[in-house]
């Protein structure tokens, strides 16, 4: 079920050494921090935010390349470990002692990284349409393309091509900067799925995994593989909803998250 209306609060900025992050902050109660996928920004949580607003403080955190977030200098791969560290630094800067993380798609990979390696800061974890232990795209092809994108003289032209490709694929460009267009490919291409696989096995906190069988971006077999790998996690499966379960089933996902947090 979709909520009656989406929520889009004003974005704020958070200055950290060497990087500017952006975020939104609304509601009161248990703190829930959302990490969007690639490409993604705060508005990808707008349908889930409405049911969460009824009982939680919901913070949508944008990492470099998305929304108002910026990392000065040449765009280069940001390792999974570094992305998790950025989230932990942001939580510390916002003076958040312990939070529940929810990550969409690649944001789920980053959320899991944060939960496993910064245990005291994370109470529960919700993975929305997140990849499983095996890469769902041809890594060698993506890395070859990413290496071309990293050639500075070619970046202006290739960035325009990348933005057009995202538009044709149905992604919103409303918050996509040139940095974001590059990072979407580069960070995805160099995501360490071996480390992600280790994180899946190492997680020792309450986890909710939710997905839709008609997900065209992360096909059903990858979600099924993750469910088989961690059958002890709570699983919420839908027949439809595509890759944006949080949009089309925001009410159900919000209710399952509330139950998970209350029991933790």
Structural commentary:
α3 (106-117) links the parallel β5 (99-104) and β6 (122-128). α3 (106-117) crosses α7 (193-202) and α5 crosses α6. An eight-stranded mixed sheet has the order 1-2-4-3-5-6-7-8, with helices on both faces. 41% of the residues lie in helices and 19% in strands. It is α/β, with parallel strands linked by helices. The chain has a single domain, classed as Alpha/Beta hydrolase fold, catalytic domain (Rossmann fold, 3-Layer(aba) Sandwich). The protein contains ten helices and eight strands. It has helices spanning 46-53, 80-93, 106-117, 139-149, 155-168, 178-189, 193-202, 220-229, 245-248, 250-263; strands at residues 12-16, 19-27, 31-35, 57-62, 99-104, 122-128, 207-212, 234-238.
Topology:
Blueprint: E1 12-16, E2 19-27, E3 31-35, H1 46-53, E4 57-62, H2 80-93, E5 99-104, H3 106-117, E6 122-128, H4 139-149, H5 155-168, H6 178-189, H7 193-202, E7 207-212, H8 220-229, E8 234-238, H9 245-248, H10 250-263
Parallel strand pairs: 3-4, 3-5, 5-6, 6-7, 7-8
Antiparallel strand pairs: 1-2, 2-4
Helix pairs in contact: 1-10, 2-3, 3-7, 4-6, 5-6
Provide a brief overview of the structure.
The chain has 264 residues and is an alpha/beta fold. The chain has helices spanning 46-53, 80-93, 106-117, 139-149, 155-168, 178-189, 193-202, 220-229, 245-248, 250-263; strands at 12-16, 19-27, 31-35, 57-62, 99-104, 122-128, 207-212, 234-238.
